[in-house]
Amino acid sequence: xxxxxxxxxxxxxxxxxxxxxxxxxxxxxxxxxxxxxxxxxxxxxxxxxxxxxxxxxxxxxxxxxxxxxxxxxxxxxxxxxxxxxxxxxxxxxxxxxxxxxxxxxxxxxxxxxxxxxxxxxxxxxxxxxxxxxxxxxxxxxxxxxxxxxxxxxxxxxxxxxxxxxxxxxxxxxxxxxxxxxxxxxxxxxxxxxxxxxxxxxxxxxxxxxxxxxxxxxxxxxxxxxxxxxxxxxxxxxxxxxxxxxxxxxxxxxxxxxxxxxxxxxxxxxxxxxxxxxxxxxxxxxxxxxxxxxxxxxxxxxxxxxxxxxxxxxxxxxxxxxxxxxxxxxxxxxxxxxxxxxxxxxxxxxxxxxxxxxxxxxxxxxxxxxxxxxxxxxxxxxxxxxxxxxxxxxxxxxxxxxxxxxxxxxxxxxxxxxxxxxxxxxxxxxxxxxxxxxxxxxxxxxxxxxxxxxxxxxxxxxxxxxxxxxxxxxxxxxxxxxxxxxxxxxxxxxxxxxxxxxxxxxxxxxxxxxxxxxxxxxxxxxxxxxxxxxxxxxxxxxxxxxxxxxxxxxxxxxxxxxxxxxxxxxxxxxxxxxxxxxxxxxxxxxxxxxxxxxxxxxxxxxxxxxxxxxxxxxxxxxxxxxxxxxxxxxxxxxxxxxxxxxxxxxxxxxxxxxxxxxxxxx
Length: 665
Prior knowledge:
four-stranded antiparallel beta sheet, alpha+beta, eight-stranded mixed beta sheet, 665 residues
């Protein structure tokens, strides 16, 4: 290379280096960013602890759907590799016990049912392992890597007609419909053992009961699983832990006898104990439950309730590698943190918390865990938790976040009219001048037994980017504040929750955050239901957006999927009609509503069917209150088609802008 060429090359490199260091101009997030956001899911650790495989879904805008591929990242965080890349989604990736292979589920090559595929983790084409004729719900490798435990649904013979005309649904179950599943005829889910070498499928369980959540004992001789073996499982929420030898013709043994729910079993490394999650209560309070960590001997007996005095829900129990502690995720006030219990003395240690939310947990080695975490400025990423310190493993969302200017997020506590202290989260547009009163949207979470946390919240970020302060209210009925707080709304809907929403409203108005003349409210599911309750109680809100909600609760009996809860909590409508009518006040007192309201619903929603929104739309339309009804074709309770997700946010902003933004000349 000549000196002139060398100088030109150096000048070019210097110029490029300068460009690389130029900061990206930030912009507010907008609804098209929905198409850019990836979703990380289902991380699994390799047997040697050196790799983690996970699913990563991206939006295919041409097909208007999400497609999930599989990725691996190394424990040291230095390597990341995509291991599948095709038009068909892959899910449920699992390492073989020897760590040489990765299995996954996919409906490749035009298959109508998801099949298990197997690929060498070092590379090469995946091979189809199964040829299942019915739907696969779960699968687990045996410890020796020679077999798989499968959870399969019974075949749907009614849908096997030679023509495209389906046979009529024949329904005689108490619980006869469910969101996404549709109408429920006869049929259950059962356990099977699949021999990988011979491809032989052995049936372990049969009958009218479901079996779920299988886990192998460390020696591979038994499976623990969950089932409701009561005479009529549709009429209660009882589940127990059972064990069965992993061979055809074996007899199951019941380990737990609690009248509530026992779920999420995991064997200890030595095979002597099973940790699981048990409901706090039985009977009527299960909807407002607070699960505790329990441990039982492999042969049964009285369980040890390790988190009984914590008064916070726990989930996702995982044994440490040495079997001396059990890691759990704990739902606390506006956060989910990582903790662990010592088996010997029951001592609890909080490993890491803060204004963030953790999900997923897997043991790596002594004192080390793999986890997933999110905070208000960062969507979920993989992390190493080492001796109480976090080390980030993936950077899935760096490109998504790079150009975005996000809302600032902070917590505050408000006081309700009856004195209740309520925890809330406030989103404010970036660079909001101090002391500027903002149009404010109260976006209410569903559940009701759920909570808003210090995690990345796409919907509220998008609303805030529209120029709004956005308030998340953890009303009574939410979890994270103890069992009494959660049970406070039992059989009394739309009362204390509305007091809490109005108390938070008073707070942000008094603090000069919210413009009292430009208040809006909205939500989805129970958030939509509470939107209806609130606008029927108070006229201060100038606009509302009620999604997947209901108001004439009496009319929901037999229409949605909650008959069992209704009869337990409210009593049968013909026996307790006054209670049902009292809880139906947003519809029966619709003439009190003055708030222009946008109603939304999924066409095929069996959770909170569209009729709940249709009734309120018709009522307001008859009363002359500005209203509109949006039905998303083919959608269930959750809106999954990307363009519909974008459309929903756009309609929120258009509706709120119309009534909450001052008109400009």
